[in-house]
Prior knowledge:
- The structure is a homodimer.
- The first copy, chain A, is an alpha+beta fold.
- In chain A, 35% of the residues lie in helices and 19% in strands.
- In chain A, α11 (290-307) runs antiparallel to α12 (310-327).
- Chain A is globular and about 80 Å long.
- β21 of chain A pairs antiparallel with β15 (557-562) of chain B, so a sheet runs across the interface.
Amino acid sequence: METQYYSKGIPLRNIQVTDRFFKRCMDTVRKEVIPYQWSALNDEVEGAPPSFCMRNFRIAAAAEKRRREEGREAVPVFPADEFQPLPEEGGPLEDRFYGFVFQDTDFSKWIEAVGYSLAQHPDKELEQLADRAIDVVCAAQCEDGYLDTYYSINDLSKRFTNLKDFHELYCFGHLTEGAIAYYEGTGKDKLLKAARRFADYIASVFGPEEGKCKGYPGHEIAEMALGKLYEVTGEEKYLDLARFFIDERGKRPYYFDWEHLIKRAEEKEDYHYYQAHRPVREQTGAVGHAVRAVYLYTGMAQVAKYTGDESLKKACERLWESIEREKMYITGGIGATPEGEAFSYPFHLPNDRMYNETCASIGLVFFARRMLEMSPEARYADVMERALYNGIPSGMSLDGKSFFYVNPMEAEPEGCRLDPQRRHVALPRQKWFGCACCPPNLSRMMSSVAQYAYSENESTLFMHLYCGGILKKQCGDVEAQLEVKSEYPWKDKVEVCVEAESPVRFTFAIRIPGWCRDFSVRINGEQSEGIERKGYWYLERVWQKGDRVEISLPMEPVLYQADARVREDIGKAVLMRGPLVYCVEEADNGANLDLLEINAKGTFRLREEKGELGDIVTISGEGRRIKPRPMEKLYEPYREVSYEPVLIRYIPYYTWCNRGVGEMKTYLRCYES
Amino acid sequence: METQYYSKGIPLRNIQVTDRFFKRCMDTVRKEVIPYQWSALNDEVEGAPPSFCMRNFRIAAAAEKRRREEGREAVPVFPADEFQPLPEEGGPLEDRFYGFVFQDTDFSKWIEAVGYSLAQHPDKELEQLADRAIDVVCAAQCEDGYLDTYYSINDLSKRFTNLKDFHELYCFGHLTEGAIAYYEGTGKDKLLKAARRFADYIASVFGPEEGKCKGYPGHEIAEMALGKLYEVTGEEKYLDLARFFIDERGKRPYYFDWEHLIKRAEEKEDYHYYQAHRPVREQTGAVGHAVRAVYLYTGMAQVAKYTGDESLKKACERLWESIEREKMYITGGIGATPEGEAFSYPFHLPNDRMYNETCASIGLVFFARRMLEMSPEARYADVMERALYNGIPSGMSLDGKSFFYVNPMEAEPEGCRLDPQRRHVALPRQKWFGCACCPPNLSRMMSSVAQYAYSENESTLFMHLYCGGILKKQCGDVEAQLEVKSEYPWKDKVEVCVEAESPVRFTFAIRIPGWCRDFSVRINGEQSEGIERKGYWYLERVWQKGDRVEISLPMEPVLYQADARVREDIGKAVLMRGPLVYCVEEADNGANLDLLEINAKGTFRLREEKGELGDIVTISGEGRRIKPRPMEKLYEPYREVSYEPVLIRYIPYYTWCNRGVGEMKTYLRCYES
């Protein structure tokens, strides 16, 4: 492998994000989502189903206390076999575990967002709140390091007996990610130490050594969390454990079969859903539950990078290719079928009944980041950008108060309400979910976006996204500072100003966006001399204080079409400008958007607008609308179609469904005239 | 009501069908389906899951024998609460009930087809076989008249305790329909007597009188069967019972709630599926399981006719309007959603994921027939024709050996195999089904088609369909004979020759098909003088031997479009010629039919063909095919579309999927040039 191109994230505290696009999201997360999330995990949101999360930690802490003081037998043992035990309606709450088996992760996802947020925006009060929450969580940890309230409260003797479905290792993964974020954001390591103790305990139970358990997570994330833990601590054993989980996955006989004592051939479960149908190096297409899949692939990429495992890297590339070439929406959405919230077969990308979970797009960004850190190629960053500017922010309303699980490419309210095959496409966004994965995932993604925008190694600073901010880069003894001034994705100029006490040599590698047809870079007003490699523009030089890099990224509105094997999209086109996918809404274009057609040869006009959708650029395009003929019967002989000319008003996809419930479409039929 | 327009079916033995289109179907049913069905219900089809039907009757007969000889206690009682008890795999068969709770109807549907077939085509051997089967069935009847093997074998004390789901009254309905058909076909009344005894028993249990049960069938059909039983026997009590079931349906509190002891409001079941959500006279739209719905509506129409109940007639008209105007495919298919095999919301008519069960189209023909017998309007016959020439025959392969449950408007094999939302669209047709409703339903429909084609009253003979045959009509003392010579739907001339010993006066009412733009009738070469009323051409005259009526029905290929509220079909058109819907298949037009577009202003050419699809007329139309551009990425900037001109070859929809598995489409995008 070409390790000279390896890079890693810049510590969050070394970047101050000033970017207009992401700052808005981050502020919303900080002001709205994080406090709301805290109320939610303390069961204080009126009208929302309780999470029971902090309550479970408290009960587990009490149980642990009793365990230490009185011995095992004193612990009340409930049967541990319900996926979501709930209190009897109207009845009193007992001292037992309630909620989904993975409810602990509500806290972990919250603390992760808090950590990132504090790195960008210190807040004493929030930090104190978080510290107290961490105390509660840590009190629930068992003496041996185990920390999962479902089994702690119910029956510790059953832990690790249902890896396939009961999400213990998933809880561990999220806990670890949260702990690392909080450590990075605040420098405090109490939770990180707890996560390490849990990791150490897991490493004592699982592993290639004789007598150890050969299982692996049903819902992946531990792999990538262990990769991060290795990065933070430098402890090889965490990397080894990640590799172990990855290597065991999909081996025959199936661990999950064994675990569930499935013996008869006809009862064999199909493990595609879990990406455990065959060893990961033999997997050629992205399959199964989309979130799980990209979490796994992310961990694989980390392990491949740190171990130099070429066959694992190849597997990552194949799986990436499968997603990018055959299974991804233009918004960076993945998971084309609601059945199993999963990838569908190649080129099956329906627009109105897919799943496109917000979390899956987030996971795709995780995967892209790790691929980029291994091999900086614009294709990875292009996908990251698609998701970050489209499929992910669409998951949250502009006010940060409601969320989509499912991000459709088109939607009409009647169909979403009445057609059972589209009922999972809930309109409008929901306030919160019983299984609350998307809102906190969005929080952590947006709060840590700088880690995706930039990475570095000793010689090079990579700019993957045009995310405005102020970065510090250590160059030997000298700390350089780069200020990236960007109004991306609205304006096509990005400026980078260098500050350094003395001249510093490093390479500045700038991604050339795949969508950009006329990319250019000037340094101090002169055409830059750089080298292009795999979609990055490498500028190696000695930088002086005051050096100015001007990047020009002309952004014309461009209609895109899909590969003709995407049957849904034949004869249709979708509008983009720069990284933004655009859509049309009923609010601007009237009802029955299916009557609209866009002139592929027409001109498009931009308009800067400041209003209820924020400070955005809208686009209008020349189009026509079929005049529906009044018909007496349901079917009548064809008559010449008459059209009325219309200006079709497009808004950025991520801003849809912020003006009440109405129709939305991305792909429109097109004509040429 | 205008009772002078009432009519009733012509006794089957008074019509000899010679029609080329239907004769083919009838012969296939007689030669292939009826024998196959017999093997199936005797568990003699290799590779098919056993029906257990005749076996259950034998076991029930033995149980009944023991009951009579030894008293109740001797009967082995199994728990009666499984919907489909099956023997243990590989284990021995016990003397108990196996199969679906409604498995008795396998026999009833078979005997019905046999009865109709014998009426048209006497067959001593088949008749003897049927007589023996009837002996077995009748031996299973209880002393009190009850006849349902599920409860007879399991536990008689539980009968009529689960009307909602366990289909007893459905079994009764089918038994009665079968018994009547066999009586009409052969004159033998053993089974009819058994059905009457069962009906009498039911009438003793259910009814408006105090102390009687106020339930009604979960799966409707008893209503229409009782209507027929009234027609055959003239017994008012059967009509009363039908009316009782219809009147009780949907009353609050719900009988089904009571039956299942559902008390708490939050547990309320939604009875739309059963058309029992509200009283039938208050139902405005067709909802729920499509087969059940049209069976109910058929019974309602019969009761409305015979009781002169205007409010019931109005309800029938409203429900009809709902189907015809908002919920029916152009093929006569109904049931736009697989969830509940049900009607969807108005104008929601997806082409590739609907249900369109063959049985539902058959039920729609039942409904149309009864509406016609009450008020002869071409709209009813138009729908009947749609179904009979398209959505029903498509349910059976041309060789009669395999069947569709689901009749899609378009299909592509990969999607049907891999997309969970289309997996119910099974390609190719299946040999038989565990729940074998469609094949026998198709058998009885096709074998009795003459009853739908014609009806009569004292003064008038109605010709609803252009079905060729020789009819006898009694006019006072004189028996007239009409020979209808038709090569419909292939040729546009139909000739009717009258034979009668002496002149006879009657009205000949000929339907003017809704699709026909240039209908004309000549009598003995002269323009006819008739009166048009609601799409029928009434010719009242004194007919002489040798009179010749020539009907001209010019059949041009015509593209149809759907109401613009059918979003799926905007910008698309479907080809028809006369009553036939046409489709395109991969076998003729290559793969990815989604690339095809039809020129709405182009010309169409007819071609008579005799080949593997039978003796048919194919049509070719001017079209173009998008040339898919090779793309490196999944999404690329739009480029001008290039087309290649193609002749699009259309075949009749009902002949699709008879040349292996491939893509099929009915609606194509269209352009005008």
